[in-house]
Amino acid sequence: MNKKFISLACAITCSFIWGTAFVAQDMGMDYIGPYTFSAARLALGFLALLPFFFIFEFKSVKKIKLDTRIVIGYLFVLGFFLAGGNIFQQISLLYTDVANSAVFTVLYVVIVPIIAYFLFSKKIHNSVWPSVLMCLIGGLLLSELNNIRVRFGDSLVIIGAFFWAFHIVFISKVLKIFNFPITIATFQCLSASIISFIPAFAFEYISFKVLSMEFAELLYAGVLSSGIAFMLQIFAQQRLSPAPVAIIFSLEGVFGSIAAWIFLNQYLNEFKIFGIIIILSAVIFSQLAPIYGKKVYGRN
Description:
The protein is mostly helical and about 300 residues long. The protein has one domain (about 5-295). The protein is about 80% helix and about 0% strand. The protein has helices at about 5-25, 35-55, 60-65, 70-90, 100-105, 110-120, 130-140, 150-175, 180-205, 210-215, 215-240, 240-250, 250-265, 270-295. Helix 7 runs antiparallel to helix 14 and helix 9 (about 180-205) packs antiparallel against helix 11. The longest helix has 30 residues, at about 150-175.
C-alpha cells in the first residue's frame, strides 16, 4: 500500500478522533468539573503514550547528553500551554455548543503565523490577513450575538486557540533542541496533567468514584484523543507537507459539528453552517495561498 496514502489516512483518522472527542468532552462533565476532566484526560494520555516512549525512544534518550533541568523546563512550558488549551476548551463547553468550540479551536491554524510574525519576526504570507477577516465574519455568524452566555463560551475557546497556537510555535523550537517527539508528547501530557490538577483540587471535588462515572468519556478523550491521535499525527506528518496536514487537521471542526448534531441534537441553522464554511475556507486559503504564490513566509 502507498505510504503517502497511509499518512493521509492517519491524518484524517486523527482529525476525526479530535473532532468527535468534543462530544465526549461535552458529555463527560455530568459528575466532574472541567478542571478535573482536563487533568484526568491528560493523565490518561500520558499513560497511553508511555509504552510508545519505552519502545521507540527510551534507549536513544538515555544516550544523549543534555541538561535534565533544561529539558524539564521545556516540558513544563509545553505542559502549561497544553493545559491552558485543554482547560479553556473544556470550560467553554459549559457555555457554548460543541460546534462553536470545535470550529473556534481551529483558529489556531491562522493564529500560528501571526504569533511567529510578531514574536519571532518571521515573514508571513499576505493571505493571513484576509483569512483573519474571514474568521471574524464566520465567528459573528457562528456565535449567537444576543446570547451573552454563548458569547462568553466562544470567547473562552478563542483564548484557548491562542494557547494551542503558542503550543505549536514553542514545540517546534523544542524539537530543534530535543528531537524526540514521542518523549515530548508523553511528558508534556504529564506536566499538563499536573498543572491542571492544581485548580481541580482547589475548586472541584475529586474522587475515583466520580471519575469512574465518566470513565467512557475520559477514556475516549484521554487515550484516543490525547494519546493515540498524537501518534497518528506523527505518522501523518512523516510524508505529508505541513499545509495539507494543517488543512486536514482543521476538519476536526467539521467532524465535531456533525458529531454534536448526531449525538447531542445540537442543531446547526443556516447561519451557523455558513459561518463554519467561512472559517474553514479561511483556514484552507491561509494554507494554500502561499504554495501557489511561491512566496516564503515564516511558519515554525
